[in-house]
Amino acid sequence: MGETTRVQAPAEAVAEFLPVLAHRPAGLFSDFDGTLSPLAASPEQAIMHPRARGALVRLLAQVDEVGIITGRAALTAEAMVGIDGIDYVGNHGLEWRRHGQHVEHPESVASAGDVSATMTEIKQRVAGTVADDGLLFEDKRLSGSIHYREAKHPERVRDPLFAVASEVANAHGLVITEGRKIVEIRPKLVVNKGTALQRLIKERGLRGVLFFGDDVTDLDGFRMLHDMRREGLQALTVGVASPEAPSEIYQLSDIVLGSVDDLADALERLADALETTPAGTNPHG
Hints:
Radius of gyration: 19 Å
Order of helices and strands: EHEHEHEEEHHEEHEEHEHEHEH
Oligomer: single chain
CATH superfamily of the largest domain: HAD superfamily/HAD-like
Strand order of the largest sheet: 1-13-12-11-2-3-4-5-6
CATH topology of the largest domain: Rossmann fold
Number of helices: 10
Largest sheet: 9 strands, mixed
Structural class: alpha/beta
Shape: globular
Strand content: 15-25%
């Protein structure tokens, strides 16, 4: 897109959401951390915005497909969101849960041992160095996250941590990616939030799609939706602003909301609007 998208008020955004969701079947998908939940110092401290959760429960009765697409493990996301009947796509697309049914990418399962070994070796390699400052290692089995948000000086930790993680991951046949104050260890597969969205859209035959995100890994989803629009899909990419948001969020978003609170407000307004229109009849009925 190239241009910077301005921040919109929730009411303005909803006016643009409605025509997209009028193309049925329609889907509404979102990242979790920094989007439906304010960023927390550590992963376990994150809490879903209560108004966003209530709105998603209502939207489940109005939109054909609702889902969470996250870097967290799918089971963890399901426990944190706590809404039955929606899709939980975890580990950036490596695993899927719906109604308690769990599916994992077979090649990622084969790499689980390498992920664990890589995380252990990185931890050993950085012990006692500047890169050890405030690290939190999160082994999600199919992928791993190393958080350095709690470091006293995160800017001093990033480069030495990234160098060690790159070397060790490469030795184990894995790749690394980055998020906000996070280094991710992943299998060497072309699987991301974009491929997850593409699969959902094609399997469910979706014609209208909204996707909400705030970080680098969400950009894969934004790019995929831009590509699929050329094939006729009606879609909007919706960024959530924050002081840490990468500049690409403003460039690749069709709409930018100013905060997690604004997203919760927009979802409530969307649920209100759909409940008062014919398109709001229950597609799951």
